[in-house]
């Protein structure tokens, strides 16, 4: 078992370079099988989620070549093999193979995906979209078979602007006959990145980044080169860490517009921030004002940064509130923040934080990926030493987290026990 040990209360300074976006990468890798030739994707983060998806590619007999930060995916000899549970359960996003295999072969067979237990996480909207395109869905226990004689364009309205359903339907529709329109589509930057990749391959996807996406089906998709956008959630996590412990920490290689809601919240509470064209410089402030934040779909405040931001709210003077509207089980970090010394109560979907409180190192658990990020942020700020267990969650989403934090002065290490 791996654990993380952090000696806190150290001032951090220097530069942290942000990696390619996990949530784009996990869709781009499955999307690559739609091409009839090889595709090259660069700025791929080295995280365990990337590895798990490459394992699925290899299972499907896809040729995968990894070089530092880039990947060449050649599906010319691939086979449409059922994706066994031991592969799909490693990450939720393995479900993008459903849309991609359906789009390519008109048939996908796989087991229900795994991932963080932050809510019920149904996939009904994905399946409704596939059905609208002409597919039949058979679900026995946790196995799904989705198949179609022919895929045809359709008008699809998503009851919720789901990131996963929007991407999965795009993947299934790019080679379908005719026009597909997705209304109430999710608008996250990762969706634009996937649509750009598909268009680079020769697809005809318009409107990504707005709530209406229009896809004209094409027969062939070809070789292309593509770059993953910077990870706005990784960037936001380090900006929050900078606001807790930083002395001019530069978070580099980012697209600040993707973090607009987060930057505005940080400014509102009084964070010392300098926002450049592709970077943010952040320093710790002596006093922070309390606030209320409510998670929302993009461009609202991202649910994935709610947990790390809560750590910063423990240092605001007075009562802050976090209202979670996307996931029903995203306060699992709270008991551990309280164990570190925070004063947080949760009722329904709202956390109330009374600050400021001293935080003191102790043993905590990374209950999910972003709860893990919150534990790292809290441990870096806290007095004394913190031990975090279940860090596999953290390593799923943060490339070189030890190196990046050590480079700016943190005392952090991973131990095998
Ligand atoms: C993606 C992100 C995740 C982020 C989330 C919301 C990836 C790999 N993960 O997850 O980090 O927290 O967006 O920004 O990109 N829903 C349904 N039925 C469905 C699909 C979703 O009811 O078929 C509900 C979910 O239960 C949840 C909400 O819609 O309450 C949002 O889910 P969705 O946007 O699909 O999130 P993911 O794509 O799973």
Q: Please state roughly what percent of the residues sit in beta strands, choosing from under 5%, 5-15%, 15-25%, 25-35%, 35-45% or over 45%.
A: 25-35%
The total count of strands amounts to 23
Give start-end ranges of low-pLDDT stretches: none
Which outline best applies? globular
Determine the N-to-C terminus distance. Answer: 5 Å
Mean pLDDT: 96
Bound molecules: uridine-diphosphate-N-acetylglucosamine
Assembly annotation = single chain
Query: In order across it, which strands form the biggest sheet?
Result: 21-22-1-23
CATH C-level label of the largest domain: Alpha Beta
What does this structure look like?
- The chain is 32% helix and 27% strand.
- It has 417 residues and is α+β, with helices and mostly antiparallel strands.
- The chain has two domains: 2-18 and 230-416, UDP-n-acetylglucosamine1-carboxyvinyl-transferase, Chain, CATH 3.65.10.10; 22-227, UDP-n-acetylglucosamine1-carboxyvinyl-transferase, Chain, CATH 3.65.10.
- The strands form six sheets. A four-stranded mixed β-sheet has the order 21-22-1-23.
- Strand 19 (343-347) and strand 20 form a beta hairpin.
- Uridine-diphosphate-N-acetylglucosamine binds at residues 23, 26, 92-93, 119-126, 160, 162-165, 186, 303-304, 326-327.
- Residues 23, 26, 92-93, 119-126, 160, 162-165, 186, 303-304, 326-327 line the site of uridine-diphosphate-N-acetylglucosamine.
């Amino acid at each position: 078992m791996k654990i993380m040990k952090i000696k806190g209360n150290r001032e951090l300074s220097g530069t942290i370079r942000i990696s390619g976006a996990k949530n784009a990468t996990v869709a781009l890798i499955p999307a690559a099988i739609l091409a009839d030739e090889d595709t090259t994707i660069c700025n791929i983060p080295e995280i365990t989620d990337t590895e798990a998806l490459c394992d699925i590619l290899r299972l499907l007999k896809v040729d995968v070549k990894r070089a530092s930060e880039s990947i060449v995916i050649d599906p010319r000899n691939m086979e449409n093999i059922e994706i066994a549970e031991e592969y799909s359960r490693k990450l939720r996003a393995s479900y993008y193979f459903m849309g991609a295999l359906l789009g390519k072969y008109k048939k996908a067979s796989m087991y229900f995906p795994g991932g963080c237990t932050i809510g019920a996480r149904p996939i009904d909207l994905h399946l409704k979209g596939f059905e609208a395109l002409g597919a039949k869905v058979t679900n026995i226990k946790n196995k799904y078979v989705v198949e179609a004689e022919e895929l045809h364009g359709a008008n699809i309205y998503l009851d919720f602007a789901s990131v996963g359903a929007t991407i999965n339907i795009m993947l299934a529709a790019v080679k379908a006959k005719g026009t597909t329109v997705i209304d109430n589509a999710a608008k996250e930057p990762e969706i634009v990145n996937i649509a750009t990749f598909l268009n680079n391959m020769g697809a005809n996807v318009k409107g990504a980044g707005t709530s209406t996406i229009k896809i004209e089906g094409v027969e062939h998709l070809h070789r292309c080169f593509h770059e993953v956008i910077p990870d706005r959630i990784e960037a936001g996590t380090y900006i929050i860490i900078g606001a807790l412990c930083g002395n001019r920490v530069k978070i580099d290689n980012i697209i600040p517009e993707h973090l607009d809601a987060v930057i505005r919240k940080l400014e509102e509470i009084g964070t010392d921030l300098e926002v450049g064209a592709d970077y943010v410089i952040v320093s710790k402030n002596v006093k922070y004002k309390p606030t209320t934040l409510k998670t929302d779909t993009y461009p609202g405040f991202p649910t994935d940064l709610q947990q790390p931001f809560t750590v910063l709210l423990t240092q605001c003077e007075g009562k802050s509130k976090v209202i979670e509207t996307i996931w029903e089980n995203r306060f699992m970090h709270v008991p551990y923040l309280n164990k570190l010394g925070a004063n947080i109560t949760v009722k329904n979907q709202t956390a109330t934080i009374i600050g400021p409180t001293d935080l003191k190192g102790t043993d905590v658990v990374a209950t999910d990926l972003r709860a893990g990020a919150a534990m790292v942020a809290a441990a870096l700020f806290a007095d004394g030493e913190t031990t975090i267990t279940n860090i596999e969650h953290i390593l799923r989403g943060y490339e070189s987290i030890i190196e990046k934090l050590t480079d700016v002065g943190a005392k952090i290490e991973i131990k095998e026990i």
